[in-house]
Each structure stands twice: as C-alpha cells, then as structure tokens.
Predict the structure.
Amino acid sequence: MRITIAILALSFAAMPAPAQKKVDPARADTAIKAAFPTAPADWASRLTGDETMQQCSASHNNPAKDVAAAIQKREQGTIVYPPDNNFMGDWQKGERLAQSGYGLRFTDYPPRQANGGNCYACHQLTKNEVSYGTLGPSLSEYGKLRDFKPEAVKAAYEKLYNSHMAFPCSTMPRFGANKILTIEQIKDAVALLMSPESPVNTGK
Ligand code: HEC
C-alpha cells in the first residue's frame, strides 16, 4: 500500500505543470455581463467597475505607490460628513445592521427593508456573537484600544464611508460611497465600534 502511494506521488511529481492559458480580459468581461441578463439597471456600473476598481483589478489589489495615492485622493473626495460633525449614533442599531446581510442581492429587489452592513461576515465584534468571518481583522475592543479618541471616532466614520481612503484596494465595501448604508446607519456602526457602552468595548 505504502509503495503504491509512493509511486503515485512520484508519478504526480513527474507530471509537467499544466500550461497556464492567458485569459483574454475582454472575453471574461463579456462572459460576466452575459451571466447577469436580468440584473437591475443600477447594477450595470458594478459589472464594469469604476476607475478605482479597474486600477485595483489591473494591479491585483497591489497598486503602485502613485496609483495608490491617486486612489486615496479620489476616494477621500467621495466622503460626505454629518452636517453637525457628530459621528456617533446608536450602538444597538449598529449591532443590528452589523448582523444584517440584507441588500444588493438578487432577492432584495425591490428593497423591502434597510440594507445591512454584514460586518460579522468578515469581522469579530462583540463577544456574544461567536459566528463571524475572518477576512477582516478582529474589531473586538476597537474603541477601547484607541482610548475612545475623537480622531479615532472620525477615522472609523471615514473607514466605513469609504474603506479605500485609508487602505487603497481594500476588500471591504465602500458603504457610504456606494450608498449601501446611509449616513445615519454609518454613525450607528461607528457607535458600535467606538462607544464605551458598546459590548464591543465592554466585552459583554
Ligand atoms: C467583505 C468583508 C468585509 C465586510 C463585509 C466588512 N469589512 Fe471591515 N474590513 C475588511 C477588511 C479585509 C479589512 C482590512 C483592510 C482594510 O483596512 O481595509 C477591514 C477593515 C476594517 C476596519 C479597520 C480596522 C483597523 O485595523 O483599523 C474597520 C473599523 C472595519 N473594517 C469595520 C467594519 C464594519 C463596522 C463593517 C460593517 C458595517 C465592516 N467592516 C464590513 C473586510 C470587511
């Protein structure tokens, strides 16, 4: 048995690696568009991608310095701040939207409720929620670790409004810039991260 496995392993090792065919980007784009024949009208621009998405795709999310700087500047320009510069809403509402993955899916048209942020799909937040993804870093004690500083509150708002400002070619959605969440909802998510009463920071 062992010998058979050894021979098998050897024969695999001896096989030449399959030649990698170069994918024609235009063909791939056509196939992607054809795959969504009934997509809602507001999806059209998402299938092409805006300038930032195109630059991120072209560089495999690793843009050269000058391109990264251009992305940061462009994305920073999309940020709309709350008129009273109050960045914190209600953490309880923030927790609900962090749990909700509603919005932008085929089954969500026409919309029947507010979009969610689906934060737990990628991040750990409260201790109570044990089901979370790890694509993004843990946000446990996010505010506490930053001493609840006002600059950190503002930075969290900017991060949520447009993730590419701080991290060009981030894989986190641009919640404000792409109108996934409203300003009020972003403030609620900021409160979940930054309020001293939030379970993210109390550890409850
Ligand atoms: C599709 C996955 C995904 C989703 C959904 C997502 N994030 Fe992220 N997030 C990331 C990744 C990846 C990073 C790390 C790269 C970066 O900073 O952009 C990140 C970074 C962050 C950071 C910065 C962390 C730091 O080191 O300072 C914050 C804050 C954050 N996310 C909050 C949220 C909140 C709140 C939500 C929900 C409204 C959310 N994220 C939804 C993937 C995601």
In short: The chain is about 45% helix and 0% strand.
